[in-house]
Amino acid sequence: MAIATGEKQKQARNVYIPHARERIEQLAGSPLAPFWARACAFWMDLLVVLIAYIPLMVLIEWLRSGRDPNAHIEIRWDFHEPGNIVFALLYFGLTLYFANGYTLGKRVFRIRVVSLVHERVTLWQAVERTLGYGASMLEAGFGFMQYFTNPNHCCVHDRIAETIVVKATPN
Asked: Is the confidence at residue 52, as pLDDT, over 60?
């Protein structure tokens, strides 16, 4: 009998076992967020990031200049700069994680990110999804346009993080 059990375990390692089937069944029938709400929420969140980023960077540059009131301070936002990526990660990733699928923009537009595999968005999923925005922007934003071709309206960053965006249910 032990040999048969051991053989079954050995065979089980060589087959696909779907994960999170229960979670996916729980989400079946959830109303998906419309594209316009997702786009508006993203741009609103990006505006929030810039509103927080610019004064902080001005302060940092002013302190670096030795508090010279005549110092020329130049602030640029560029997704290639590591500091800017970290700043965006802090806002998008941590907000999404701690607010359980919401950012300020998503809350205003009544949409929410939900995990396909966990009861709540994990920190790793929030980070993956935030970094996935970069992948969605490649090829002139084609990753965002996949919303229209994917049956569950998933963009590249949704698929990377195993999430979907749904209409938020009233509390």
From this structure: yes
163 — phi, psi (to 5°)?
A: -135, 165
pLDDT of residue 1: 47
Distance of alpha carbon 65 from alpha carbon 70, whole angstroms: 9
Residue 162: count of CB within 10 angstroms of its CB: 19
Domain extents for the chain? 19-167
How many C-beta neighbours within 10 Å does residue 142 have? 14
Distance CA 99, CA 96 (A): 5
Taking a C-beta distance cutoff of 8 angstroms, is the pair 129, 113 a contact? Answer: yes
Q: What is the DSSP string of 106-132?
A: HHHTTEEEEESSSSS--HHHHHHHHHH
Q: Which tens digit of pLDDT belongs to each residue from 158-169?
A: 999 999 999 998
